[in-house]
Design brief:
- It is built from 7 helices and 23 strands.
- By secondary structure, the chain is an alpha/beta fold.
- A hairpin with a 5-residue loop joins strand 15 and strand 16 (about 335-340).
- Helix 4 runs parallel beside helix 5.
């Protein structure tokens, strides 16, 4: 995908976590031999998407565990990826299912969308993409593509693109960030025509992620593929997971009319359990106030309106929705509503803004320097929850695995 797309998603992550230097723990994993079929992959299979700035040979991606590859074949009506032929052929030779994507520049113009779809089909055919494969419309800002042409006209143009792909004997998909899908496209009309055709980009945090954590899955209808990182396993390549089974010449896109939604975290293959919550933290029913997505930055217990502890809690870095704005519990504490008569302390989610009284270093969970950055005196920094005791000294958490000594505030 484009640099523009990555910047947009990273900025969205920065807004959520509100701190610099956030990183994912890098894990050295042994290379494995993938046994995926080149014509189908199961749900929860991992894959990559590549363009001309990635390797022409995708062998290393297969060895890292990728079971499918989505290759950029074209853009507009005048550009073809010079590495696409090699990327598709090496994907197939390494037992990865090949797919393709086209970077859209048609904005909300349906006739231009048809022309671009025809161009994408010809490029895919020239590069050896098997008939019946998936071809995605990559719809985002960049290269003159205007995403602000209205949700309905934009959806109509995208559907025109997808209709043309289908007529040529391929399976159409729509790629976009969760923000674009929700705010710039009448996505419901797209999945009404093409159920489970969405390939959504949504990153929990910026930086390396080795495996998807479905606690951060962007809960929305119609998703077949989730792009969960732009640095999968340290290869500087986008990482994706199949939410549903995918098959060349198959009918899994329609899935007998079923609609894909957020998979149950209890069925997730992820090995990261630090983001899971207790089994009792679900709400009794959904409140009527507007919902806001956020992340718990420190373990958050659940309380009722009286301020009494209830069963369950949310683990640190767990994705939640809260309803309405902050509320004051009967004990005077500021909280966020996460269910009917269920609340968490606001400071564990929204944090508190504090000003540095002196220059300060940033530390990790073991009390060691996390990086060489220095927070300067007078800098406002958001801290989450109460203090931590690390090796006998007190710290505030300022991000995922990042701490500053409380004495510096």
């Amino acid at each position: 995908m484009t640099t523009t797309k990555k910047l947009i998603i990273k900025l969205a992550c920065a807004t959520v976590l509100e701190t610099a230097g956030v990183a994912v723990t890098q894990i050295n994993r042994p290379q494995i031999t993938v046994q995926a079929s080149t014509t189908s992959v199961a749900a929860r299979s991992l894959g990559v998407d590549v363009a001309s700035y990635q390797n022409a040979d995708l062998s290393s991606h297969a060895q890292a565990g990728a079971q499918f590859a989505i290759v950029k074949v074209s853009e507009g009506t005048s550009y073809r990826n010079p590495k696409a032929s090699s990327q598709i052929s090496t994907a197939i030779s390494n037992n990865m299912m090949p797919m393709a994507y086209h970077f859209a520049t048609f904005s909300s113009n349906s006739s231009a969308a048809v022309a671009e779809a025809n161009y994408a089909v010809k490029a895919a055919q020239a590069f050896g993409l098997p008939k019946g494969s998936y071809i995605a419309c990559d719809y985002e800002t960049g290269q003159g593509n205007n995403i602000y042409g209205g949700k309905t006209p934009t959806a109509n143009a995208i559907i025109a693109f997808m209709d043309t792909i289908k007529a040529a004997g391929y399976q159409p998909l729509l790629y976009a960030s969760s923000s674009v899908l929700q705010n710039n496209i009448d996505t419901s009309s797209v999945i009404a025509e093409y159920p489970n055709s969405l390939w959504v980009a949504s990153y929990a945090i910026s930086g390396r992620i080795d495996n998807p954590n479905f606690n951060y899955f962007p809960s929305m209808d119609g998703v077949s593929i989730w792009q969960f990182t732009d640095n999968w396993r340290g290869l500087s390549v986008d990482g994706n997971v199949a939410v549903l089974p995918l098959s060349i010449n198959g009918n899994v896109t329609s899935n007998n009319g079923a609609v894909s939604q957020a998979p149950s975290s209890s069925n997730s293959n992820t090995t990261n359990n630090s983001n899971s919550s207790s089994t009792d933290n679900k709400t009794d029913s959904t409140p009527t106030e507007p919902a806001t997505s956020a992340y718990v930055m420190k373990k958050a217990y659940i309380y009722n309106k009286k301020g009494e502890r209830q069963s369950g809690y949310y683990a640190a870095y767990y994705g939640i929705q809260y309803y309405g704005s902050t509320v004051t519990l009967d004990n005077g504490k500021t909280a966020l509503k996460v269910g009917n008569d269920r609340y968490v302390m606001a400071s564990n989610v929204l944090g508190n803004s504090r000003v540095m009284r002196r220059n300060a270093y940033i530390y990790n969970h073991a009390g060691r320097r996390a990086n060489w950055r220095v927070l300067r005196k007078g800098t406002p920094v958001k801290t989450y929850g109460s203090r931590f005791n690390i090796n006998g000294k007190y710290y505030y958490r300022i991000g995922k695995g990042l701490y500053v000594k409380s004495a510096n505030f």
